[in-house]
């Protein structure tokens, strides 16, 4: 027989099951909104040209943001690769003339680059010569895979069969970024070059070949950036490229020279550049462009603080849902037919991968 207390309970209340405390949703409530799963793995593609100062700044800012996020979340893993976008195939100038005459940039742009570079730990030098960056992209791709393919760089992270220009091959295994700094160790925005950032061109003693993958590609990219933008080396000079690639990758000079001489590697770079231009949403044709997890696109030089905040939003499954495409390209490098603005561009691509 039911007690008087039982009869006084509302009919939708189970007398045996305790009532949940105010403000808490029962774990078995099927009507409760699903909780987003936390993201601990970040696949990042940075589209860039080695000739572009903003790309060097952007890479340093990205490295710093990654280091800060990994300090806060040691379980986070980042796979970072780069894809080519050659801005000036016919470039052959001294460095100052290239940026002011060929690219048509204002003379005060150097002060802007120098200021941002100092903040990012870069000591820009505007001496020396510049040239076509295509060969440097050949070597960056060689650090990622042994046979030239037109596969997107972000897919070259683990052994797989891929289509090459002449057939099929198996790509090298994945390498991730080095482990984060010990918990509690501060990471400043000015000290971002965490893996081989202090490598100067030609200063590394050749060793046995390293394992190809994202980490090796990033080390080579940083060494090329440093040699060209800080040490007055010619980006198109064969000796500089061979010395740098041998020192960083450990491959023999003859292997590096074979890549530089290869028409097949050159065709792969040309096709990858064309693929990037087709893939990116209009009007973003500038570098650097960062794509996170194939979904979130950030055009131009992004501040460290902003990237740190975005990584946290993505980790929580709640990234900023903006589609702020504009007719200006943020502080970035562009081709002669492009535009050069001052505002950042962030695009979310929730329905399809980029």
TrEMBL record:
Gene3D superfamilies: Glutaredoxin. Signal peptide: none annotated. Coiled coil: none annotated. SUPFAM superfamilies: Thioredoxin-like. It comes from the Eukaryota. Residues 322-354 are annotated as: Disordered. This is Uu.00g122660.m01.CDS01. It comes from Anthostomella pinea.
């Amino acid at each position: 027989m039911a007690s008087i207390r039982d009869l006084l309970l509302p009919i939708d209340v189970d007398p045996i099951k305790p009532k949940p405390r105010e403000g808490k949703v029962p774990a078995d409530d099927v009507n409760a909104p699903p909780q987003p799963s936390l993201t601990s793995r970040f696949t990042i593609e940075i589209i860039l040209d080695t000739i572009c100062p903003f790309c060097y700044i952007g890479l340093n800012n990205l490295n710093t943001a990654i280091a800060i996020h990994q300090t806060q979340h040691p379980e986070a893993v980042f796979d970072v690769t780069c894809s080519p976008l050659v801005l000036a195939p016919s470039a052959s100038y001294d460095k100052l003339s290239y940026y002011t005459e060929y690219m048509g940039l204002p003379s005060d742009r150097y002060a802007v680059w120098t200021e941002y570079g100092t903040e990012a730990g870069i000591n820009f030098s505007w001496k020396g010569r510049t040239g076509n960056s295509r060969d440097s992209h050949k070597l960056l791709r060689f650090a990622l895979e042994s046979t030239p393919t037109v596969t997107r760089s972000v897919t070259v992270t683990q052994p797989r069969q891929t289509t090459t220009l002449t057939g099929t091959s198996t790509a090298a295994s994945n390498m991730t970024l080095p482990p984060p700094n010990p918990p509690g160790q501060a990471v400043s925005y000015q000290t971002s070059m965490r893996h081989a950032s202090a490598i100067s061109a030609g200063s590394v003693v050749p060793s046995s070949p390293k394992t190809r993958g994202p980490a090796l590609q990033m080390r080579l990219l940083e060494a090329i950036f440093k040699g060209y933008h800080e040490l007055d080396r010619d980006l198109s000079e064969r000796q500089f490229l061979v010395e740098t690639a041998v020192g960083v990758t450990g491959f023999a000079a003859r292997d590096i020279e074979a890549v530089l001489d290869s028409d097949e590697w050159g065709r792969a770079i040309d096709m990858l550049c064309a693929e990037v231009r087709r893939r990116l949403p209009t009007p973003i044709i500038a570098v650097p462009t960062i794509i996170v997890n194939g979904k979130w696109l950030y055009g131009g030089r992004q501040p460290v603080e902003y990237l740190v905040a975005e990584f946290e939003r993505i980790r929580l499954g709640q990234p900023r849902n903006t589609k702020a495409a504009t007719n200006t390209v943020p502080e970035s490098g562009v081709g002669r037919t492009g535009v050069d603005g001052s505002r950042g561009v962030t695009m979310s691509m929730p329905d399809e991968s980029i």
